[in-house]
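Slide 14.
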Amino acid sequence: MKIIVNFCIKDQVYSDITLFLQENIKSLLVYNYQDLKNENEKQDFYHNLLQAKEIIFIVSDVDNSRCLNYQEFYKQKAHYYNQSSKLKYSKITEKIIVLSENGSDELKAYYSKQAELYGVDILVVNIKNNNSDLKYEKNLILNFVLEEYLEEESAMAIVFYENKILVTKELIYGNEYLSLPKGHVEKGETKIETAIRECFEETNIQIKKKDLIKELDPYEIRFINHYNKFVKKRIYPFCFRIKNAGSPQTKEKWIVAAQYMDINEFLKKASYDNIKEMVIEAYELVKGI
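Slide 15: predicted structure.
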């Protein structure tokens, strides 16, 4: 069962969206958080949430008057759940839909990063044009709720030279992110071949299969691409150690810098926590080699 929890004022836009979802999704239960007035209603609400497989929160970033305090929900949840209930809730998938009048690339980039950092799928929907029928926006939300994703595979090169790591600075929606060489697996290409190719294309550093220390466990991220399509990407990290530093330089227009960086400095400045975890694991493998 899927449950929608609404934190927004029940205006026409919200009503149209929830009605559309209810018409297209079976077993969809909708709660308006602001309607929970007494203790019995709140107890029933938090109890029913535990029956869900997925909870979709609808919030608004238009202004504070249109969006109730989202954090209040989590404070209340801690009050109503015992340890067993908290464990059960932790297994429920959460998603967040942000209804916004600011559909800028910067806003989308911010929420994309939040989604990756906290492991929660977040969809930002621009509702500025309230006079439209919102057909496009409704279908975008429906696909998000139904998990209709494009599936992609990428490979990442974690490259160590002495006590430094090869890093990149990526330009995404006008913002710079400190990361590692990585990219899509092309047809007919093995994943390690992708990691080697992407490393060269993004940094000008040529690594070889013989430099491989270990293939690490893959991890998954979800995001919305430039075409507003939902993407589920599985990334395969490969740990390499090289003896020749070469000369790092950028070769792709979205890579604004390529360089070797001290491990500790990278761990402090890296933009993504999951990549930090990969680097810590990889560095333990190469120390002393």
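Speaker note: Confidence is low (pLDDT under 50) at residues 64-68.
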